[in-house]
Inverse folding.
């Protein structure tokens, strides 16, 4: 059984994340979306909301599981018996950042990181832009899955 962990903050999930997860399930038997909990980070959405948005977005997809975690992603992989980490690449900055993490993870473990290039139509979207639009009263309808819009 090929399992991949898709780690991130998902504050909130965007159409870009959605695209990567959808394509991930065509490659793996299970995609575990893992929401990292970092005590030093300030989030716009609560952990419960972030988890619910993803669960609702994939409620008809049994190959997607959503969990939360603290600590190293490779330790989570071992715990969940996942052989792969799934990540999306939007631009050269993502690549440089991800390259260092993937190399480090390979030194520390046998876990392979699989990168998917983002769909051109969603490659400009980031959770931080979505939060910015929201803070300033803008419309995020075209940037996020429907589940996120149901909030409050
Ligand atoms: P992090 O806190 O790790 O940056 P994010 O929730 O922002 O977490 O991103 C998690 C993963 O989703 C990363 O691999 C990131 O490259 C990918 N990702 C973010 N935005 C997009 C997008 N618009 N299209 C495809 N992948 C994306």
């Amino acid at each position: 059984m090929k399992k991949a962990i898709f780690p991130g903050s998902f504050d909130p999930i965007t159409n870009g994340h959605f695209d990567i997860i959808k394509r991930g399930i065509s490659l793996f038997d299970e995609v575990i979306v893992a929401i990292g909990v970092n005590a030093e980070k300030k989030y716009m959405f609560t952990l419960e909301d972030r988890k619910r948005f993803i669960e609702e977005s994939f409620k008809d997809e049994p190959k997607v599981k959503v969990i939360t975690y603290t600590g190293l992603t490779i330790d989570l992989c071992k715990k969940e018996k996942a052989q792969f980490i799934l990540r999306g690449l939007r631009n050269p900055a993502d690549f440089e950042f991800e390259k260092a993490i993937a190399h480090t993870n390979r030194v520390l473990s046998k876990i392979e990181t699989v990168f998917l290039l983002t769909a051109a139509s969603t490659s400009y979207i980031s959770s931080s832009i979505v939060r910015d639009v929201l803070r300033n009263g803008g419309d995020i309808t075209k940037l996020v899955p429907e589940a996120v819009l149901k909030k409050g």
DSSP finds six helices and five strands in the chain. The beta strands are 3-8, 30-36, 64-69, 84-89, 112-117.
